[in-house]
Fold this sequence. Notes:
The chain is built from nine helices and ten strands. It is of the alpha/beta class. The strands form two sheets. It has a seven-stranded mixed sheet with strand order 3-2-1-4-8-9-10, with helices on both faces. The radius of gyration is 22 Å and the shape is globular.
Amino acid sequence: MRVLSPRNFASALITFMVAAGVATSAVPQGRTSEPSMAEVPFATSRDGNRELYIVSFGLFGPESVFASEAEKAAQILRERLQPDAQLLVRFNHKRGGIATSATLAKALGSAGQAMDPAKDILVVFLTSHGSPDGLEVVAGPRSETLSPRSFRSMLNASGARYRVVIISACYSGVFARALADARTLVITAAASDRPSFGCEDGATWTYFGDAFFNQALRASPTLDAAFCRAREIVTKRERREGFAPSKPQMAGGSEVLPLLGGPVGVVHPSCRGSSAAPRQHRSALPRSSPRWLPWTVVAHSLLQAASGKAERSLLPPAANTPPEPSSMETSAASRWGVSPELPARCCRT
């Protein structure tokens, strides 16, 4: 055992105190932006005030658009929903990062401990590449998939009663199916069988992020109104650029919207038929998903897609007409990357 001299001990103690002071002062209370593995706790909820706790994660490090979107979306959410909302931002980058499933669970747990579940609202924004299985999480050499079921478990474990979940990713509608209920409003960039667009290294926003946060939310009185406007913006852009419609989804939240100043049970006329219905959750995907299709059905679907029978129109549904549900053949072709409308990766620029 090495024994330090009094002089060396004093020097080491001073160095430690200075370092601790710098580390403490460098992180503002209630907001972190990927500084370290240490979680900065949220401040405890104040009596008599409904407070928002915002958690924003950019999960895919190889493309910087997700880090940019996570930071900017969080700031706009705070500006529009509650200027003094507590905020935590995490993102990955090309060399690594700590925006993982584990740190997301820890952040949600930290927010849940600080919240008063009887009155406060948890707002979560996730942005990444996606698939029918969930969201891609890539931090340097580490990679994983965040499934709807795992994310639902995190939310439930947090103890937050009122929740808003916004997900910008391909096939993110699978999260609407898994999460939406009266106390959980879910907004997604795409339907469960559709890609979304605009992922590009160096870009500021994805198509949906730009439409929802940067344009619609800045000028809309409520979240649901912002969604309706964003859906119009995205659909027009996709039509103009020749892409199949991503069909953003909004579901649940009948008890949450009134707490945010939104109307109860009111759907903007342009959004009728666009929301995914909440349901009982036993699985992240319905049994009609190609994940459970026998190979004979899949092969038949692929042959139909190749012959052009499974192709769908590029035109979006009429404003007041519910979108026609995808057929089994179209779902299978989309899942296995056969349809010429769908790119191999979720985002195409």
